[in-house]
Amino acid sequence: MRAYYTSPKGEKLLVFDYMSKGNLGTFLHARDPETPIDFPTRMKIAQGANKCKTAASNVIATAGALGYRAPKLSKLKKANTKTDVYSLGVIMLELLTGKTPGEAMNGLDLPQWVASIVKEEWTNEVFDLELMRAAPSIGDELLNTLKLALHCVDPSPSARPEVQ
């Protein structure tokens, strides 16, 4: 982020660098199928999101968008660390599944869909096929990352991890 501004009327403005190759959504969902994104790259993106080093359209603006927004944020009208943790969890699920959070799967949002698949013990079904090709070497990391992401999107804000 380059700058931010809050007007006397409470309007907010964030200024970020121009991203010539697009944003996170473009990188994940509108790329050539011949350009796979490996697990280490996806985890670097998650770490960047966690440290807020990723550009606005990647995290900050995205976090307020439908699909990334914590369920209680609409009622509270004010973000806090628990709503930020929820948004980070959705980004992690997006990185693991290759699915967009706004895309409904059987009438469920992304966190609900992943939780339902895991509950049915079909955990491997949630992962992006590109990640499954490397599963023998990264299986434990995939599962641990999935567990953390699901912890971040817990419906109860008090059950989500604390920000360190």
Automatic annotation (TrEMBL):
Residue span(s) of domain Protein kinase: 1-164
InterPro entries referenced in this protein's UniProt entry, alphabetically: Kinase-like_dom_sf (IPR011009), Prot_kinase_dom (IPR000719), Ser/Thr_kinase-like (IPR052451)
Molecular function per GO: ATP binding; protein kinase activity
Record-annotated membrane-spanning stretches: none
Organism domain of life: Eukaryota
Pfam families given in the database record: Pkinase
PANTHER family: LEUCINE-RICH REPEAT RECEPTOR-LIKE PROTEIN KINASE IMK3-RELATED
This protein's name: Protein kinase domain-containing protein
Organism from which the protein derives: Cannabis sativa
